[in-house]
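[Protein data]
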Amino acid sequence: MTIPPSLSREISPPPRARKRWKPSEPLATANHVAPPIPAEPTLAAVEAGRAKLEDHLTYFRKHLATAWRETPEDQPRISLDDWAKLYVENQHEHGNHFVVHQHNHPVSGVHYDLRLQFSATSSISFALPKGLPGNPNSRSLGRLAVETRVHNLWNHLIETASSRTGSLLIWDTGTYSILPRKSANKHPPSPQTTDDEGSDTEPDNGAPYANGVTGQHENERLVKAFQTHYIRLRLHGARLPKNYTVTLRLPSANSFNKQPRSSRLRRKNGRDYNKAAQQHLSTDSELEEELHARPQQGEEEVEEIDTDEEEDAQTRLDNAYPGSTNSIGSVHQRQWFMLLDRTSSGLVQGQVSGQWVCREEREGFQPFFVRGRDYERSIVTGRLAKEVESDEGVEGFKGRSGWMGIMH
């Protein structure tokens, strides 16, 4: 008897029916777990460049909003909305945003970082060991200003702390103006006049450039002034007084263009400093200004300020952190000198007392002093440096001790 073909197949389990997907069924099954939502990066990771963000303003605004503190009415503040608006208005190729950070670094100690936007993405940075000058009648009008790395513009938004970099607090922020260089005075400066206000031809009222330079943006003027090694800088901030103006000048002796090969401690005592100034400065007025701006006690020994030991070779070569561009020609650790421009700040010297006072009721300012991490609060959040550290979970941090402000 012949077996039908339908019965001649080998015995095996029946084939499994293919399961048809129904729209009502969820895609995930017991064997397929959806990937977890990535955790938001920490402030320290963002600051160090280990985490990438698409929208830095939204990220920092969210964090700073949760850290807000009540402060006395006389404490200078800027609202979170105005702070964000200020940044947005300068997010373009001709922005002129500035920030002053109070930085308590674990190695170099307390100093202040002045950052000036010069392009859509980047800012030059100066470390000020003693902060900005604020007393027009001080015997120490000069301040040391040391070039550090070119930073990203979004670094202006940072207020955070970590055990590796210390605390970073927004001391002031706003926009800047670059004023024209003062005309040379044909007469010798008076014995009481030791900074470059002696070269004024007339009081400055903050008017636009009067030397025929038109159509330039402030950041373009900054680039030009920086490359001529003389910057007359007016800062429009929330803490600094109205029309606050300083000059930054790079002495000839410090004018080198190659990036330093390695970190080292630089020391200059008063004798060596005066000798170098006399050898390299070209005019008597330049020498007088230079000697007046000589570093104060505690500034002669200049360590590599605001330098990360973990920087890669490309960062050191370019003197720019990843994401920024050193198109301005900044050189790491060049020592500039800053002077308070008293006449441009609205001050006039009394004929009888010789003291510098407000020119008019609405001009000039009362003396102020930079007092350090234990006294100064953020203009955005109202926090002290120790409160920033606490909010970021930094415990037992001990920065370099011995910092003293110039209180005379």
Remarks:
- Confidence is low (pLDDT under 50) at residues 187-203, 263-293.
